[in-house]
């Protein structure tokens, strides 16, 4: 019963991610067993997508213009979330900020992590690049 419940939750999360990204997500599996979390090696634990090309630009545009402004109490994104190599990571607490997700059909509110990988060599270059795309950094 527990395994089927977990599979259903993961399938629903994958369906939400597919709707948001426009492509089928890859199911990630546990590399090691962790007794504290009650997971075994090879157990499906999440899903991810890597967007490139046209889909990437469409998602980036929707993220900046539609999704991010719909975040509750939004005051801008932190400019400190760079990794030292010009890549930016951010967390979203609710998948319902994306217009592709129908609020009435959501079984559970889920968060997701978004990493924007750039060709910039430093955080300053990455910040300038994203600012040129009107990325809503906190003032």
TrEMBL record:
GO terms for molecular function: rRNA binding; structural constituent of ribosome; tRNA binding. One of its GO terms (cellular component) is ribosome. Residues 44-137 form the Large ribosomal subunit protein uL5 C-terminal domain. GO terms for biological process: translation. Keywords: Ribonucleoprotein, Ribosomal protein, RNA-binding, rRNA-binding, tRNA-binding. InterPro entries: Ribosomal_uL5, Ribosomal_uL5_bac-type, Ribosomal_uL5_C, Ribosomal_uL5_CS, Ribosomal_uL5_dom_sf, Ribosomal_uL5_N. The keyword Disulfide bond does not apply. Residues 7-40 form the Large ribosomal subunit protein uL5 N-terminal domain. Part of the 50S ribosomal subunit; part of the 5S rRNA/L5/L18/L25 subcomplex. Contacts the 5S rRNA and the P site tRNA. Forms a bridge to the 30S subunit in the 70S ribosome. This is 1 of the proteins that bind and probably mediate the attachment of the 5S RNA into the large ribosomal subunit, where it forms part of the central protuberance. In the 70S ribosome it contacts protein S13 of the 30S subunit (bridge B1b), connecting the 2 subunits; this bridge is implicated in subunit movement. Contacts the P site tRNA; the 5S rRNA and some of its associated proteins might help stabilize positioning of ribosome-bound tRNAs. Belongs to the universal ribosomal protein uL5 family. PANTHER family: 60S RIBOSOMAL PROTEIN L11-RELATED (PTHR11994). This is Large ribosomal subunit protein uL5. The lineage of its organism: Bacteria, Pseudomonadati, Pseudomonadota, Gammaproteobacteria, Enterobacterales. The gene is rplE.
């Amino acid at each position: 019963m527990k395994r089927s419940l977990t599979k259903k939750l993961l399938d629903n999360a994958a369906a939400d991610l597919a709707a948001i990204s426009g492509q089928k997500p890859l199911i990630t599996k546990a590399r090691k067993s962790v007794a504290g979390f009650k997971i075994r090696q090879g157990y499906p634990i999440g899903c991810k997508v890597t967007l490139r090309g046209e889909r990437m630009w469409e998602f980036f545009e929707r993220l900046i213009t539609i999704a991010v402004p719909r975040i509750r109490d939004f005051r801008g994104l932190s400019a400190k979330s760079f990794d030292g190599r010009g890549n930016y990571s951010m967390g979203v607490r609710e998948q319902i900020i994306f217009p592709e997700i129908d609020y009435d059909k959501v079984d559970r509110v889920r968060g997701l992590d978004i990493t924007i990988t750039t060709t910039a060599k430093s955080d300053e270059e990455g910040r300038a690049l994203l600012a040129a795309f009107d990325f809503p950094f906190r003032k």
